[in-house]
Amino acid sequence: GGACRGVGVTHFCVMAANYLTAVAGERAAVLEWNESGAMERMELACTGKVRPEKPFQVLGTDYYKAAGARELASCLDRYRYVLVDFGVIGDRNRDEFLRCERRVLIGSFCEGQPGAFWEYVRQGKRADRSWECAAAFGSGETRRKVSRGLRVPVLEIPLSADAFTVTPGTLEFFQAFFLRQ
Question: Which of 25, 92, 174, 176 is disulfide-compatible with 19, CB 3.0–4.6 A?
Fold first, then answer.
């Protein structure tokens, strides 16, 4: 989930799913558990149409737009990996986010957005140290400063203009990321 809007949660989920299916040979699904409409736009861009049926598939990964509990329940025994794009973590989706086996809070270190990480700490929204923090944008110095303040590492997501392309940087990142399970 995201600490605020526009930090790359959907992009991260697509990159991770693409790595899992294309490189690791795993079955993966991405559920859009937010109201952004990003998956419908992605379906149109990748397939040339928008269908009412779920899921649509791109490069071996199944994508569920406008998903919720019903889709999650049906996916749990069909896929080894189910990635849930919660969008911004807030009161409406926090409980579902906390039920996930692995929780990644994505933020950004540019244009004043580091404050979103601090806001989670200040309000006590970070349930425990099991949350992983990550960011793709901004300076390394700011990332290190926030990491020290949070007292947890903040993973540096490699920049990738195309979430469907596995680059040497994304390959290395996701190999390490999925080994930490």
Answer: 174
Going residue by residue through the chain (181 aa), what tens digit of pLDDT does each one get? Answer: 765 666 778 999 999 999 999 999 999 999 999 989 999 999 999 999 999 988 999 999 999 999 999 999 999 999 999 999 998 877 788 788 888 888 888 877 665 555 565 565 455 444 456 778 788 766 667 767 767 766 667 788 888 889 998 899 899 999 999 987 6
Q: How far, in Å, CA of 161 to CA of 141, rounded?
A: 22
With contact defined as beta carbons under 8 Å apart, do 31 and 83 qualify? yes
Reduced 3-state DSSP string for 89-115? CCCCCHHHHHHCCCCEEEEEECCCCHH
Is 24 in contact with 79 (CB distance < 8 Å)? no
Cα dist from 169 to 64, 152, 156, whole Å:
27, 22, 11
Q: pTM of the entire structure?
A: 0.84
Find the helix packing angle between 140-150 and 114-122, rounded to 10°: 0
The continuous run of DSSP H or E covering 134 comes out as strand 132-138
Instruction: Please report which helix (H) or strand (E) contains residue 28, including its range.
Output: strand 28-32
Amino acid at 151: R
